[in-house]
């Protein structure tokens, strides 16, 4: 049964990583993957956080302050707890000199550590879910952005 599930997982990964590849996704998805690691991403997120805190009223202040422990908790749950329990190697890693997945397209350098679950995706969906509760009108945009972050992890 595990082999069957792995073959489905590998097929979906290969389809997304290779078959859906195109010049637009080769630019868009690295942007979503590295949004929190670039000066422009950090600037955008910082300005948004400051605007929420200073211009969002009581609710904005509360949401801005609560987002800090939320991201800390979701990131630690994903990277420290679940990843170490599942211990799934990244598709771009080698085991005993043999690539886990052959002919992988890497648009960014292969990261270290385990791959599942994606901390980027976990944090994006934690934020989207939290914000969707307070900002119902923005649900579609929030979950679309979180989905793009999650998809970017497979594409890049």
Describe this entry's structure for a reader:
With 156 residues, the protein is mostly helical. Helices cover 69% and strands 3% of the residues. The chain has helices spanning 2-19, 25-33, 39-55, 57-86, 119-134, 139-155, and strands spanning 94-95, 98-99. A two-stranded antiparallel ribbon has the order 1-2. A hairpin with a 2-residue loop joins β1 (94-95) and β2 (98-99). The chain is elongated.
Keywords:
156 residues, two-stranded antiparallel sheet, single chain, 2 strands, 6 helices, mainly alpha
3D shape: elongated
Point out poorly predicted stretches: none
- Oligomeric form: single chain
Order of helices and strands: HHHHEEHH
Mean pLDDT: 82
Topology, number of strands: 2
Q: Percent of residues in helical segments? A: 55-70%
Describe the protein's topology.
Elements lengths: L1 H18 L5 H9 L5 H17 L1 H30 L7 E2 L2 E2 L19 H16 L4 H17 L1
Give a brief outline of the structure.
The chain has helices at residues 2-19, 25-33, 39-55, 57-86, 119-134, 139-155, and strands at residues 94-95, 98-99. It is mainly α and 156 residues long. Strand 1 (94-95) and strand 2 form a beta hairpin.
């Amino acid at each position: 049964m595990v082999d069957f599930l792995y073959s489905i997982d590998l097929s979906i990964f290969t389809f997304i990583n290779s078959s859906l590849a195109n010049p637009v996704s080769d630019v868009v998805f690295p942007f979503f993957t590295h949004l929190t690691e670039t000066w422009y991403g950090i600037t955008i997120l910082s300005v948004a956080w400051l605007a929420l805190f200073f211009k969002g009223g009581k609710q904005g202040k509360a949401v801005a302050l609560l987002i800090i422990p939320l991201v800390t908790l979701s990131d630690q749950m994903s990277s420290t707890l679940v990843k170490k329990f599942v211990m799934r190697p990244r598709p771009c890693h080698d085991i005993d000199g043999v690539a886990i997945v052959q002919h992988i397209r890497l648009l960014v350098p292969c990261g270290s550590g385990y791959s599942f679950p994606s901390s980027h995706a976990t944090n994006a969906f934690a934020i989207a879910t939290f914000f969707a509760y307070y900002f119902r009108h923005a649900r579609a945009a929030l979950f679309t952005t979180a989905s793009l972050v999650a998809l970017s992890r497979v594409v890049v």
